[in-house]
Amino acid sequence: MNFDVAIVGSGPAGATCAALCAQAGLKTALIERTQFPREKVCGDCLNPACWPIFKRLDLETRILALPHSRLEEVEFIAQHGASIRVPLARQARGEIAIKRSLLDQLLLTRAGELGAAVFQNHTVTKIDPGWILHTTGGSFSGKIVVAADGRNSTVARLLNLLPASARDRIGLQTHLSAPANFGSRVALHFLKEGYCGAASIGDGELNLCLVSRPRDLDALKTWALNHFQIAADPQWRTISPLSRAPIAARNGNLLLIGDAARVVEPFTGEGIYYALSTGELAARHIVDNTLDAYPKAHAALYRGRLWINEISRFAVTHPRVATAILATARVTPGILRFLTRKVIGS
Ligand SMILES: Cc1cc2nc3c(=O)[nH]c(=O)nc-3n(C[C@H](O)[C@H](O)[C@H](O)COP(=O)(O)OP(=O)(O)OC[C@H]3O[C@@H](n4cnc5c(N)ncnc54)[C@H](O)[C@@H]3O)c2cc1C
């Protein structure tokens, strides 16, 4: 099957790009290896910067109609239990938490509504010259191919673009019943074994994420089981690597978007925003036929925002530093409020 645009992966990046390319009248294929709805290793938190993109996709009301939690504060908890709470602004389109099964299904549905041909249960396994994509369900060709297939991008690997991943940390995630009185908050624990993020996601459920080096994973899981009084080891989803070098955002007629191009530290909860915004950006350059300008625009989108993400990565990989930052912030809480607002924009 021949398409103007063939997009591999229907996370927030791929579905957004497909929706906007199809809306502009391009013959668009959205090729996804799983069958939706599906969960993902993710903290489920949506940065408020996502709302203008949802508005352009005409999805604001439909997202708010899905089960979610409106997050009211972030609690930073140091190694020995001292904690600081930073309230989040009460705004109509603020930080919310929503299951990825719900959000990603809605985005995929929207891409279909706007005219993209959606192929689920199709895994890209081989790429031939001329941008022929072979999948487990048949072959596709695209005048332009978009890699939106996440941090372990198959497209990048098949084209020898994926950087060798160093031995890195592992991310674990599960959904649980929220403890009584957990409230509408995100709790971020800095621990010597790694870090833990817990967020209320509505309907009495909690999203629990753990991040650590492989050697500390069992200890971190044990900590989480005790701390959240979890009776039996839950079904953990896992992902690795947590960080890797970025890949050039364009390679001929291939554009990379979302995690496939650049992975950010999950701690600040911005990955979905970058996925949506690079999906939108790539669609604009495809529709306007300005592929040359895409890499510069892609780099500009991250510029000026990444420094807090880098600080966060340093803090979470050096828990003693994080504890020292939190001790300072207890005396001068403005610092933490400033950093939180820089990320969350509230
Ligand atoms: C522990 C952790 C916590 C996080 N918490 C947050 C958070 O709270 N908030 C936030 O904004 N971000 C968070 N993130 C980051 C966020 O999950 C990602 O940045 C986001 O999912 C990237 O979206 P994407 O569309 O680029 O890729 P993905 O969401 O990874 O989607 C890629 C899609 O491609 C498909 N695919 C893969 N290979 C193939 C193939 N060969 N053929 C066809 N399809 C394929 C996959 O099935 C998948 O559906 C977190 C990440 C981690 C690891």
What is the topology?
Elements: E1 2-8, H1 12-23, E2 28-31, E3 45-46, H2 51-56, H3 60-64, E4 69-70, E5 73-77, E6 83-87, E7 96-97, H4 100-113, E8 117-119, E9 124-128, E10 132-135, E11 138-147, H5 154-158, E12 170-177, E13 185-191, E14 194-202, E15 205-212, H6 217-227, E16 237-239, E17 250-251, E18 254-256, H7 271-287, H8 294-302, H9 306-317, H10 319-331, H11 334-344
Parallel strand pairs: 1-2, 1-11, 2-8, 5-13, 11-18
Antiparallel strand pairs: 3-7, 4-7, 5-6, 9-10, 10-11, 12-15, 12-16, 13-14, 14-15, 17-18
Helix pairs in contact: 1-4, 1-7, 7-8, 9-10
Bound molecules: flavin-adenine dinucleotide (FAD).
Describe this structure in words.
With 346 residues, this protein is an alpha/beta fold. The protein has a domain at 2-41 and 101-166 and 245-307: FAD/NAD(P)-binding domain (3-Layer(bba) Sandwich), CATH 3.50.50. It has 11 helices and 18 strands. It is globular and about 60 Å long. The mean pLDDT is 92. It binds flavin-adenine dinucleotide.
Task: Give descriptors for this structure.
eight-stranded mixed sheet, single chain, globular, binds flavin-adenine dinucleotide, 346 residues, 26% strand, alpha/beta, FAD/NAD(P)-binding domain, 11 helices, seven-stranded mixed sheet
N-C termini distance: 46 Å
Distinct small molecules bound, one entry per kind: flavin-adenine dinucleotide
Strand content: 25-35%
| Overall spatial form | globular
Rg, rounded, reads: 20 Å
Let me know the CATH homologous superfamily of one domain.
FAD/NAD(P)-binding domain
Number of helices: 11
* Biggest beta sheet summary: 8 strands, mixed
Q: Compute the number of strand runs.
A: 18
By secondary-structure content and strand pairing, the structural class works out as alpha/beta
Overall pLDDT? 92
Q: What name is given to the CATH topology of one domain?
A: FAD/NAD(P)-binding domain
Unreliable spans: none
Which CATH architecture of one domain?
A: 3-Layer(bba) Sandwich
